[in-house]
Amino acid sequence: MRIILFALLLLGITPLHADAKGKKISKIVLDAGHGGRDGGARGQFSYEKDLTLAVALRVGKMIQDSMKDVKVYYTRTSDVYPSLVERHEVANRAEADLFVSIHVNATAGRTERYQAGTRRVKKGKRYVTVPVYKTVHHKETSTSGTETYVLGLHRNSQKENAIGEYGDNITEEQGMLNENDPQTAIIISQYSQAFLGRSVSLAGKIQEQFALQGRRDLGVKQKGLEVLAGSVMPGVLVEIGFINNPSEEAYLNSETGQAAVATAIFKGIQAYKWDSER
Ligand SMILES: [Zn+2]
Description:
By secondary structure, the protein is α/β, with parallel strands linked by helices.
């Protein structure tokens, strides 16, 4: 039912008009991922939900301090959990010009089975030596860097980009659309016509800022993310680093790290705004 609502909203949009230049950016929605009972990904000592909120509030403050013509809307400003629907309702009610969702990545961890030794077992009348296996779970990763998602079908991007580098085992964000459902495919394609170009542009500008700071650039990718599909405006989902990489977790929890991450997102938005208002 919700999906049908998105379709109706999107049908009202003329792609040509939507891509026109000279568009004022005056309302921006910042969505701190997860919250409340939903902690998101977990590191050794921190939760995704706290990092996304800290960064969202910093980005919002930077926007308010330096873009007097922009109003910032938050999907949450404290440790609560708004549903995905509630998140894009904030954006749609405000008729916002941009939707920026902030998340922290985690790899799913890997399980390794290794031979720990041998033991003797009786087989028939003889004793034979058999290997003994143990299983260990590694939650830590050395994967690092930032990536920014736009709404799309992610089957084409999987081949082309860096997902393969960490073995396709990234923890899925909640609220993935079923890309095999024809109706969903139509909605994604309508959204794409209206907003994909601008979403990719914003995503690229944010990634560029991270790269300038020396962060590893995992690129701009497409995924069927419901939180983006429901918001009728260009939108991106930024993954600001890997919480199960101990050095990135420390960085994302530090004053320096949070200020840098917020600055990258802010500068990306600023560049997009200049570009769009030319
Ligand atoms: Zn997340």
